[in-house]
């Protein structure tokens, strides 16, 4: 599976990340599924009631749900929710325990969601992406987060 990330979305994430650094910023990823691949062509930011910490980010969930619905309708069902993204200012692009808990929560509602983390500072941000899947052992559900190959592409100009 390859995650295709459009270059304007990457630029926009870097700007969101830089704007609030050293606090984390984030939001949601919009696009579509092509077989196993994911194509990220749009994003949304944190929403007005999101919480931004140095080592945590809590999105404005209600706002996000409304944004996902309006993006879906405006695109006649083309744009779907693919997962979450957030920044690690001055950190590394690795999943924290909190990130794993967040991805597990998403994976209970959405099949194989993505978690994309941009780490860096100023204008230099490096993306890494994971796919979450819930496995069901006998006792309790557990998350398996697998790093995904990420490729940035330039969308055709309209
Ligand atoms: Zn994180």
General description of the model:
It is a single chain. The chain is of the alpha/beta class and 158 residues long. It has a single domain, classed as Cytidine Deaminase, domain 2. The protein is 25% helix and 43% strand. The chain contains three helices and nine strands. The strands form two sheets. The chain has a seven-stranded mixed β-barrel. Strands 4-5 form a two-stranded antiparallel sheet. Strand 2 and strand 3 form a beta hairpin. Zinc ion binds next to strand 6.
Distinctive features:
158 residues, alpha/beta, Cytidine Deaminase, domain 2, seven-stranded mixed β-barrel, two-stranded antiparallel sheet, 43% strand, binds zinc ion
């Amino acid at each position: 599976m390859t995650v295709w990330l459009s270059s304007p979305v990457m630029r926009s994430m870097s700007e969101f990340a830089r704007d609030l650094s050293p606090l984390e910023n984030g939001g949601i990823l919009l696009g579509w599924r092509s077989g196993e691949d994911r194509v990220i062509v749009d994003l949304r930011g944190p929403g007005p009631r999101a919480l931004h910490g140095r080592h945590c980010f809590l999105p404005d969930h209600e706002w996000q749900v409304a944004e996902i619905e309006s993006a879906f309708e405006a695109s006649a069902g083309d744009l779907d929710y693919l997962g979450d993204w957030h920044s690690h200012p001055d950190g590394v692009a690795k999943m924290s325990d909190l990130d794993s808990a967040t991805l597990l929560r998403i994976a209970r509602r959405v099949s194989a969601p993505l978690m994309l983390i941009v780490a860096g500072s100023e204008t230099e941000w490096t993306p890494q992406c994971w796919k979450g899947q819930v496995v069901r052992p006998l006792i309790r559900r557990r998350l398996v987060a697998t790093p995904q190959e990420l490729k940035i592409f330039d969308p055709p100009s309209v």
